[in-house]
Amino acid sequence: MASPIPQTQSTLEQRETYSLIGANKVNGTNIYNPKGDHLGEVDEVMIDKLSGKVAYAVATFGGFLGLGQSRYALPWSVLSYDTGKSGYVVNLDADTLKKAPRYENEAELSDREWGTRLHDYYGIPPYWL
Amino acid sequence: MASPIPQTQSTLEQRETYSLIGANKVNGTNIYNPKGDHLGEVDEVMIDKLSGKVAYAVATFGGFLGLGQSRYALPWSVLSYDTGKSGYVVNLDADTLKKAPRYENEAELSDREWGTRLHDYYGIPPYWL
């Protein structure tokens, strides 16, 4: 899989900036903290049909955080892709992730009041603004 | 699957406006023209990792358009979801779909020049603007 052409920093940046990915391929992608501890995986990508925006990555935090198979919705913007790790990095401590607003069923993810609460919790503007 | 509560127009609108969907569930969704002819299916949803926007629905137009298993990238905004049909409707004639810019491999979808050409072809602004 070695590239015959040496990659310059600018082509790497460009590739990362512009690159599209099949939503399917995001599922199962590992999530790490900045120290490199494996936190969990992306289970599903939730998209907003109307605005065409990615709303949430639904993640499970199994091993390191010990949250079993519970599903957590992470605003897409808290995930940054790290090509070196081939995974997403979230710069949030375990306690913050553990205490984040939960949801009972998938329909609740569409609820804007719930969504506002989640984005407020993470201190970021909602994806629909 | 009958709802015990009669749906008013406003709740239907609200549901459609706000509803999120798992990207996985979009795959395989049927695509129709406004007359109701079945054109094909969504094969994959391509998302832009950085902007968090849905870029394209990669579609196959098998039967009606006779385009075999060729994959076409449709800007997300040309698809509108029709709850009655449980599928997407594209208001474009067969000839327009057939003559749309093609791509050789998935990496080409990330190319902004190609993307500009595709969006120009459909007369809509690129998803990244």
UniProtKB/TrEMBL annotation, chains A, B:
<feature type="domain" description="PRC-barrel">
    <location>
        <begin position="22"/>
        <end position="96"/>
    </location>
</feature>
<dbReference type="InterPro" id="IPR011033">
    <property type="entry name" value="PRC_barrel-like_sf"/>
</dbReference>
<dbReference type="Pfam" id="PF05239">
    <property type="entry name" value="PRC"/>
</dbReference>
<dbReference type="InterPro" id="IPR027275">
    <property type="entry name" value="PRC-brl_dom"/>
</dbReference>
<protein>
    <submittedName>
        <fullName>Photosystem reaction center subunit H</fullName>
    </submittedName>
</protein>
